[in-house]
């Protein structure tokens, strides 16, 4: 029996892990111990995903959140190491690029427990982003690198991974598995929503930690909401705090963070997606919607090449201009960019080999 210790802690990781955990539960010869670092802790940032997606209750629940990046990651590292010593897993499984990802990968590597990384090889080439640091370091200590795209494989090849004693595998994107699996359960959120809305999300540190970028984006959203189409924005707690701190006024249809099923409903029913999220860029594509991405780089470059996504940075005029051009535009996945919903099966297949 192979014992896998899965480390999760942030909203997108619950969604990614749900599909892999479900395959593990149906597969013989492999068992999973689930560790939740506590990085995300509000009911609508954590519990809701466990309930909606049928993720088992974590076997280990740390309660680590807040503080600086170094402090958060360091506290996680110390406590994850203790959990590893107690549970003696054969392998560690980490997802994405958060502080929880890096802490889990590093704890495993230091104890010589092999590390598998789902979403390996993604790069923005912007070392100012906490996510870029986390993913580069996690890849460096992993020996099973599950890449979601050909570009991710290429990035690792460019960094010399082809010459290392590790496996780089293109398995597709587990987020497409989740979107396909749960789309039919999508449900409208409670409360009235305006007709013909644009779905917006905004939370990345590169935007919210800069008062100038945050103000420029908010100016654009307010203008779009007044002149083009209503903007529905489920507000991430990070953004809520920073908007209040800087005394900014967000005049759009603000709602609390949503569960995944409600989010899928919004993706299906919106006229456009405006975001700085990694996952939401692809979900727009899965639902045939154009996406305007309020960042300077994206790791999902194939969406740009396919004409489904436009990068506009935090520039008020560019955000408004791109919104005008893409509003209501449908996009199509003609070449199966993300693996077609079989990524989780492939991950578990390779974990067992
Ligand atoms: C983290 C990830 C980011 C990912 C995002 C997904 C890192 C470095 N960043 O960013 O890559 O895109 O998760 O959503 O790991 N907060 C609450 N309640 C919660 C969760 C957070 O109030 O349930 C507050 C925290 O106390 C903190 C702020 O939001 O003040 C930011 O949380 P944090 O986990 O540090 O980073 P995210 O911005 O969520
Ligand atoms: N999401 C959600 N509710 C929300 C906002 C996002 O369920 O209110 C989902 C979204 O559909 C996607 C994931 O959370 O599956 C993306 O997480 P986030 O944008 O927080 O992080 P990122 O992908 O940028 O790391």
Protein described:
The protein folds into 2 domains: 2-173 and 339-352, Glycogen Phosphorylase B (Rossmann fold, 3-Layer(aba) Sandwich), CATH 3.40.50.2000; 186-326, 3-Layer(aba) Sandwich (Rossmann fold). 44% of the residues lie in helices and 15% in strands. The chain has 15 helices and 13 strands. It has helices spanning 11-25, 47-53, 69-87, 99-110, 130-140, 150-158, 174-182, 205-208, 211-227, 237-245, 260-269, 278-286, 301-305, 316-326, 343-352, and strands spanning 2-8, 30-36, 60-61, 91-95, 115-118, 144-147, 167-170, 198-201, 231-234, 253-255, 273-275, 291-293, 309-311. Strand 6, helix 6 and strand 7 form a beta-alpha-beta unit. The longest helix is centred in the first third of the chain and has 19 residues, at 69-87. It is globular, with a radius of gyration of 19 Å. 49% of the residues are buried. Residues 10-12, 39-42, 45, 65-66, 69, 97-99, 130-131, 203, 205, 237-238, 241 line the site of uridine-diphosphate-N-acetylglucosamine (UD1).
């Amino acid at each position: 029996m192979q014992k896998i210790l899965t480390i999760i802690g942030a909203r997108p990781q619950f969604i990614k892990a749900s599909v892999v955990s479900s395959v593990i539960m149906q597969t013989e010869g492999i068992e999973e111990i689930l560790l939740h670092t506590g990085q995300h802790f509000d009911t609508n940032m954590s519990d809701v995903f466990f309930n909606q997606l049928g993720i088992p209750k974590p076997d280990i629940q740390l309660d680590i959140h807040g503080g600086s990046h170094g402090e958060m990651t360091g506290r996680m590292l110390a406590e994850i190491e203790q959990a590893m010593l107690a549970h003696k897993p054969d392998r560690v499984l980490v997802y994405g690029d958060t502080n929880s990802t890096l802490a889990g990968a590093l704890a495993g590597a230091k104890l010589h427990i092999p590390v598998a990384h789902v979403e390996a090889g993604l790069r923005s080439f912007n070392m100012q982003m906490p996510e870029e640091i986390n993913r580069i370091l996690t890849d460096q200590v992993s020996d099973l690198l599950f890449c979601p795209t050909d570009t991710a494989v290429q990035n690792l090849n460019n960094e010399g991974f082809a010459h290392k004693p590790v496996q780089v595998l293109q398995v597709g994107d587990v987020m497409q598995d989740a979107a396909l699996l749960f789309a039919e359960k999508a449900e409208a959120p409670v409360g009235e929503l305006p007709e013909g809305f644009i779905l917006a999300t905004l939370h990345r540190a590169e935007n919210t930690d800069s008062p100038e970028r945050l103000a420029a984006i908010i100016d654009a959203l307010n203008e779009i909401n007044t002149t083009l189409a209503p903007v529905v924005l489920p507000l991430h707690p990070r953004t809520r705090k920073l908007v209040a701190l800087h005394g900014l006024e967000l005049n759009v249809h603000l709602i609390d963070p949503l569960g995944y099923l409600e989010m899928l409903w919004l993706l299906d029913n919106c006229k456009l997606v405006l975001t700085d999220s990694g996952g939401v860029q692809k979900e727009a594509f899965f639902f045939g919607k154009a996406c305007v991405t309020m960042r300077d780089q994206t790791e999902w470059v194939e969406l740009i090449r396919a004409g489904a996504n436009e990068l506009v940075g935090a520039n008020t005029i560019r955000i408004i201009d791109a919104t005008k051009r893409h509003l209501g535009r449908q996009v199509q996945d003609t070449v199966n960019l993300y693996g077609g919903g079989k990524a989780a099966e492939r991950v578990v297949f390779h974990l067992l080999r």
